[in-house]
Amino acid sequence: MADVEGSRQEFSSRNWDDRRLLHILESVVRRFFRNYWDLDPLTRSQVDRLRMAAAEAAGSANISALERRAILSGFLEDFASIEAVLPIARESMRGGIAGDSPGYATAMGISYLQAVNVLRVMQDDPSHYMPRSVQTPPAPTLRGAQPPSRDARGQPNAGAPAKRGATSGLKDTTAPSQGAARGAEVVQFHTYVDFPPTISNRNDVKYPLVVQLVRDRPRESRGQAEVGIAFQDKIEYVDVVVRAPGFEEVSGYGAGAHDGPALRRTIAVPQDGDSQPAVFLMQLVDDHTGPQRVTVDFYHRGRNAGSLALEVAVRSFPFLGRGTRRAETKGIEEGEESPVFGTASVVRAVDGVTIGQGTPLPAADIELRITQDADGRTLHFHLHSQKLSALDGRSAGSIVFSDLSRPDLFFDRLAERLSALAARAGTELTGDEAARMEDEVADLGVELYEQLFPAPLRQLYWELKLRRDAGEVRNLLIVSDEPWIPWELVKPYDVVDGNDVEDDHLAGAWCMSRWLAGAAVPADLNVRAARLIAPMLSLDFVTSEMQYFGSLAARQIETAQPISTRAQFLELAEQGGAQLFHFATHGNYNQEFVDESPIVLEGDPLFPSDLTRRRARGLRREKPLVFLNTCHGARVGYNLTGLGGWAQRLVDHLGVTAFVGALWEVNDELASKFAQIFYEELWAGKTLGEAFFLSRQQVRAMQSANPTWLAYTLYGDPNSRVFSPLEGRQASPDL
Predict the structure, then answer these.
(1) Closest CA relative to residue 240, chosen from 209, 205, 215, 218
(2) How do residues 686-732 score in pLDDT, each as one tens digit?
(3) Which pTM was predicted?
(4) Which CATH number goes with the domain that contains 671?
(5) Of 196, 340, 449, 701, which is the most exposed, with the fewest CB atoms less than 10 Å away?
(6) Contacts of 378 (CB under 8 A, 6+ apart)
(7) What are the backbone angles phi and psi of residue 130, rounded to the nearest 5°?
(8) How many domains in the chain?
(9) Rounded CA gap, 86 and 374, in Å?
């Protein structure tokens, strides 16, 4: 022990400058975690307690820079006092460990990375370091760059001009994904995510959640989410937003957040290296056992650049004792295993991170982010908007709903009524009959509003309507974990202070689109070739589409004979060569297997599961626009499109740029006109959101009582554009 005490005195007697202290701290961290599991459990427990205490103390916003530095120095002294790890501290103080790659410590998910971040801020110019009372940890001042200007809340300042070496982070918002910016050049990143898959239900234990963007695919992480960022300079800033309703964030930077479960960190992403890590110190809000879900969203310049979700098992382990903060502990079942520490299992993620260079696309005016709990019944709502900064990141409440894993239970009654209305509206109606049908559709929308919109979201919606009516905002993007709920049909209606207030259906009031959480929303698309998939099952219906596609040659878009069989389509899906696929056929709803509702072709039908990644490699490469104009009429009876299965397959698995489909039966004639109007508006230079909105309005004007105009849903970026060669304009060369 004398040797240990001598090392303590040696460390204390030296006057470390900040750069040297940082170097030692990171060297210790790297070496220690390479040998962590070789240490005995008692030693690991000692070190864990030390680093947790250091993280919590150094994260406080109420201490000075010198006090924070003293905490970190004290941690290293205490670390050196543990005999089993003394060789690690010794070697670090001698000048580091040969062979350790830069950033190894951060990539290993050290739980006191907040403390390391504080030192990093001091690295280039310690005299300029000032602790800030903010929810996000300080971004590192990398060489040759300055951090973005910030407002009084410590957030990037939307009104400040961009500084040399950095951007303001809010104006000129950008697109995520390959081709995220027009003329983009893509840089590939990956995500490192660390969180335990199984934790104790003791509610006085803290667990670090570490998220980082890295250049090389990490072997340790199972969270491979794709995040798209358009570089305008060597450094960009990305917001990491965590939604974890069962947890609270208890570090100095996140504690005391009053806006629900959403927590935010801003990380610096250099063009040629790994990002700063984002660290959240999570603690259970109660001692209930069962599954918990943690969702991580990445935002760059206001755009949702990608998402992932982790599932965490919360269990009772009697040998750990009871928590000290809240209610009683539930018992465990016999045979339940001990806690496992490591990377949480990822339930939704994608394949990497893309950062493009070029002119960024604007973010959606309003993003409604909807996350789903592990119970499959609870939905949480958050708003994001760069144009309305007071609402950015705002929690908008939660609802407990019926089982979202069974969309047929939710849809059967609703879709049956809408399909019947669409069939009736095709006949000649009197003015009174048409008015009654419109009222019936409106009542369905109001019923959905009352079921789906929690009270906080209702209150916020009327503020959004005022801003929209004033021309401040126009488009709405809904990013959710489910593809089944017909958000387009929702019709807001309330009684406020004794007065009735109402709005149109969401699809009639906004330039609206949606996206499935996971991969980033793709940007622009160049259509050089288009293919029509049209079996000759209903000649009257198909003829109009065939004639329209024949006219595309005038726009210098290559076309070919319609595809009519499953084998022909699968061959094209594998080979690629087209950027627009239009299906003009019927769909059959499979009530037993909703995700496998097929599209009717000549001979064998086409199922969503037919489009595997290998078999649809051409679709993955081209990232096309896919329009599923699968109509239903008296010939096939009451059917649904099974849109959820197709949306998940094409959007989530294959990464198409945009996907259009109908949620219930549509009128053949109106369906054909809807598609042609949509394409013409795109060729005229309208954005996806504008073109889709104008198509709705024109079809609505033709037969306002027919709910066909409401049936269509658009998955895609409302601000992206689709170009034909005739326009002489180019989207990203990657597309």
Answers:
(1) 209
(2) 999 999 999 999 999 998 888 889 989 999 999 999 988 876 554 44
(3) 0.69
(4) 3.40.50.1460
(5) 701
(6) 245, 372, 398, 399, 400, 401
(7) -135, 125
(8) 2
(9) 43
